[in-house]
Design goal:
Length: 390
């Protein structure tokens, strides 16, 4: 049986809500026109675009996959989860592929170990934010490759040693007692270095744009990392970078997370046509959201208003804290309990980006240091010695 719709009441619905001629659409258009000269910042999963306003051409800056060293560091960062995945395949799922995949990872680790050197990081990858740290990065990578290869070989020789207990004691946290760097510390260091590089360039780029942050319109559009991640202020490393670039002057209520908004592909050969074509639509998305928000004060002025703010963050220095729902506060570059807890959280919390576990901390340290990477202490790298592994 077909459901009945009253044409009169449906028309009433569409008069305000639906279609390009609706009252709501006119409100969006008016709000967009009112903000036509305001700077619009749009972030996709890989790029930032700044639309200055009043039809001026946009500028675009890449920050993820198009940047030097990102994939190389990510490959090293992910050794911990990769090895844990192999252990899980064997112990939890008894998956026959675990041995072949272990052999495969071992081959790639050995190839990477042969390619690794201070010269590779200094002269070929050549990331500005890593300048002066190339030997330390190479030493850390050498340790990660050697430790990983040793653990994988042991598992291939005797599968019974490939388990949760040895993953902890022989691989992830091996060496802490002797005061040496560990795989856990390496993961923090590589994630931090990635955040340091991206944030350094983005903070500098935004500073060059001379943005009026109090009037800026910000839309973080489309997918950020895995499908469930980065859709709130507190879980978006991109939001963290934008807020840091503003000197924390950008009002949170002007930054909207829009996972379903359209995005542009990274421009090729300076072709900004796709970026330009999306400006009007993206401005309307921001204006539509803002216009609806502003109805609240008009309709309910005597009631408490919504005020966006950061959630209280847990402090895992308190050993009685056994569960958390937000990233714990980091007290300093040697606060390993908090940073390692963050490693666990980015795996377990589907809202989080794996690579974003310490990006907010990297941004805050860069802002405090005047965007000078050399003045920032990299946890797990600066002042940490990684032992030689045979």
């Amino acid at each position: 049986m077909l459901s009945y719709e009253s044409p009169e009441l449906v028309d009433l619905f569409t008069t305000y809500t639906a279609g390009p001629t609706s009252i709501g659409s006119h409100l969006t258009a008016a709000a967009a026109e009112h903000n036509a000269d305001a700077p619009l910042i749009v972030a996709t999963g890989a790029d930032f675009a700044l639309y200055p306003g009043n039809g001026k051409p946009p500028t675009v800056e890449g920050f993820r996959f198009s940047t030097r060293g990102f994939k190389e560091l990510a490959g090293i960062s992910h050794l911990g989860p990769a090895v844990a995945t192999l252990v899980q395949l064997r112990t939890k799922y008894a998956a026959p592929c675990w041995r072949a995949e272990t052999e495969r990872l071992l081959r790639e680790v050995e190839r990477s170990r042969q390619a690794n050197s201070a010269a590779l990081w200094r002269d070929t990858i050549a990331v500005e934010a890593y300048r002066g740290r190339e030997q330390a990065i190479a030493d850390m990578a050498e340790y990660a490759f050697a430790r990983t290869a040793r653990y994988l070989r042991a598992g291939l020789e005797d599968g019974s040693t490939f388990n949760a207990a040895t993953l902890q004691s022989d691989y992830l946290d091996n060496g802490r007692e002797e005061g040496h760097g560990t795989i856990n510390q390496m993961m923090i260091a590589t994630f931090f270095l990635t955040g340091l590089d991206i944030s350094h360039r983005i903070l500098r780029w935004f500073r060059e744009q001379e943005i009026d942050w109090e009037r800026a319109m910000v839309v973080i559009a489309g997918k950020q990392g895995r499908s469930t991640a980065g859709v709130t202020w507190n879980t978006s490393s991109v939001a963290t970078m934008i807020l840091g670039a503003s000197g924390y002057r950008l009002p949170l209520e002007r930054l909207y997370m829009a996972p379903h908004a359209p995005t542009f592909a990274t421009p090729q050969n300076g072709d900004l046509s796709e970026v330009i074509a999306l400006e009007e639509l993206l401005r309307r998305i921001w204006a539509n959201t803002r216009a609806t928000v502003e109805l609240g004060d008009l309709m309910f002025p005597g009631l408490p208003r919504y005020a966006p703010g950061r959630l209280a963050v847990p402090d895992v220095d308190d050993l009685s804290v056994t569960e958390i729902s937000e990233m714990p506060v980091i007290h300093g570059h040697d606060d390993w309990r908090s940073m390692t807890t963050r490693l666990r959280m980015v795996l377990e919390d589907p809202r989080q980006l794996l690579s974003g576990c310490v990006t907010d901390y990297a941004v805050s340290r860069l802002v405090a240091a005047g965007n000078d990477p050399a003045a920032v202490t990299v946890p797990g790298l600066d002042g940490v010695a990684y032992p030689t592994v045979q």
